[in-house]
């Protein structure tokens, strides 16, 4: 994975501790109670939505899951619906065939292994169909208030571009963020970084002139007015 903004020789360069504190202080001031943009009704529907969001936009997933979750918001209801009908609900989402299979399989796993409840443990979550480390971290953070940081393409880019937590892959960036983000900001750091990457520190043309942390950022290719 490439950020398009960070050279290999900068991977060990990390922002100063005082600057990191200020970085998150400013992001918090701009959005004191950040929320994810996927719509859900309970931990189960959140899990399904995050599984469906792989290689898809939150907007696209929300359009598909609104009618789906109206008829199936528990593992039992999803199984009763069946794979073919699930596939029809999510056919506008990329990789919908495989995702429909995973939704049915993980629903069965939840019934069989967890009394229909979404487990509050990363290892158990990662054993579910279609659930990787990032998905598990998102569910733990949003559904259960665990201060995890799920590194997607946005967080990977922001971590590298700003020198906040540079790394060659998402796991390295995640580990660095866990180490450098002050405890007071860890619960919401995931959301602040994703939203910052999605709307300000964008991939092709970061909107540096309106960025509240531009003076703390280590990116040498900052855009001008």
Bulk shape = elongated
Gyration radius, in Å: 19 Å
Low-confidence stretches: 1-9
Return the average pLDDT rounded to an integer: 93
Proportion of residues in β-strands: under 5%
CATH topology of the largest domain: Endonuclease III, domain 1
Strand tally is 0
Compute the number of helices: 11
N-to-C order of helices and strands: HHHHHHHHHHH
CATH architectural name of the largest domain: Orthogonal Bundle
Distance between the termini: 29 Å
Give the number of domains.
2
Instruction: Identify the CATH homologous superfamily of the largest domain.
Output: Hypothetical protein, domain 2
Give a structural overview.
There is one protein chain. By secondary structure, the chain is mostly helical. It folds into two domains: 8-35 and 148-210, Orthogonal Bundle (Endonuclease Iii, domain 2); 43-144, Endonuclease III, domain 1, CATH 1.10.340. Helices cover 54% and strands 0% of the residues. The protein has eleven helices and no strands. It has helices at residues 17-30, 43-52, 58-71, 75-81, 83-89, 96-114, 122-126, 133-144, 153-161, 170-180, 186-199. The protein is elongated and about 55 Å long.
Short synopsis of the structure:
This protein has 225 residues and is mostly helical. It is built from eleven helices and no strands. The longest helix is centred in the middle third of the chain and has 19 residues, at 96-114.
Give me the secondary-structure topology.
Blueprint: H1 17-30, H2 43-52, H3 58-71, H4 75-81, H5 83-89, H6 96-114, H7 122-126, H8 133-144, H9 153-161, H10 170-180, H11 186-199
